[in-house]
Amino acid sequence: MRLSKELIILVSLLLGIAASGLSMTISVPMDQPTIQDGIDAAYDYDTVLVAPGTYEGHINFNGKLVVVKSIYGPLETIITGDAEVYSALVTFNNNETQDAVLEGFTLLEGWLGVYCENSAPTIKYNILRDQRTTEWAAICLAGPGYPPSAGFGPAQAVIVNNTIVNCYGGGISSFSTEPPIIKNNIIAFNSKYGIHIQSILLPIDLSYNDVYDNNQNYINTVPDSTSISDDPDFTYNYRLSPASPCIDAGDPDPYYNDFDGSRNDMGAVPLSDSYLAVYNINF
Questions:
Q1: Coil, strand, or helix at residue 19?
Q2: Plot region of 46 (φ>0 → left; ψ -120 to 50 → alpha; else → beta)
Q3: Per-residue exposure over 217-227, b if at least 16 CB sit within 10 Å of its own CB, e if not
Q4: Contact present, 35 and 54 (Cβ < 8 Å)
Q5: Per-residue pLDDT tens for 25-56?
Q6: CA 261, CA 24: separation in Å to the nearest integer?
Q7: Which candidate, 120, 260, 251, places its Cα nearest to that of 180?
Q8: Sheet (strand 170-174) strand order
């Protein structure tokens, strides 16, 4: 039997709706006690939704294309671990794509914050502070191996609207053979450097960042004209003061607009009196 074009389209639409309806939300700690347990229980395209609190331990996405997201953003939700354990707080090393998302956490006092090996996740709206490695950076993109001896490989992560501050080493280091996207971030006050690009692969989307007062702001790369190097003028918890040069200084494309619909503010916490409520509504 030959199906009509209209019937084929209808069947395709129904299958698409059914497939999208299969995705689930796993709540931590209500459904699973830890973030790692939530990831382990998830299937691709599920969401692991994390309640406010401090979560001890290191997590690995283990190839899962899932969204791991806090309910109320990085000011309320912390991932921390033993800095003496030479491992990242969050690891992507099983060919994860941009559909693997880490959003809305403070990563506090790990050895590394995020390590991407041959993986290309999305890392957005996180605060990475006080990472303890002196050999590499808070976010590391690389091929096989592990810092400081990792090699080149495809690790074209999307690193957008993060605040990376007060780390013992650098902010972001890339050995990726494919260009990552690094934009709308604040990278400041790190002891060694802001952004290090080891690969000579160009062009790279390195735009609308504030890279300020690191021992060396850029290594092997230069900012484009959209980026700044100004004091972000934090208040408390790395929020922006009303006078911050980072306000409305991110990418003007509406795709990147803040949760209240205004132009993107650089960094993990946009200036908004109703930040937490707006963040939750836009889940």
A1: helix
A2: beta
A3: bbeebebeeeb
A4: no
A5: 999 999 999 999 999 999 999 999 999 999 99
A6: 27
A7: 120
A8: 59-60, 88-92, 112-117, 137-142, 170-174, 193-197, 216-219
Cα 258 to Cα 93: distance, rounded to the nearest angstrom? 30
Cβ neighbours of residue 115 closer than 8 Å, sequence gap 6 or more: 87, 88, 90, 91, 92, 93, 140, 142, 146, 147
pTM assigned to the model:
0.89
Residue range 70-100, pLDDT digits in tens: 999 999 999 999 777 788 999 999 999 999 9
Please provide the distance, in angstroms rounded to a whole number, between the alpha carbons at the two ends of the chain. 44
Measured CA to CA, the distance from residue 203 to residue 38 in angstroms comes to: 37
User: How far apart are alpha carbons 90 and 54 in whole angstroms?
Assistant: 15
Q: Using CA atoms in the order 256, 78, 113, 265, what is the torsion angle rounded to 10 degrees?
A: 20
Location of structure tokens 């949760």: 259
Name the strand (E) or helix (H) holding 12.
Answer: helix 5-21
Gap between the Cα atoms of 117 and 140, Å rounded: 8
> For position 11, what pLDDT does the model report?
36
Q: Any idea which residue has 């060396």 for tokens?
A: 216
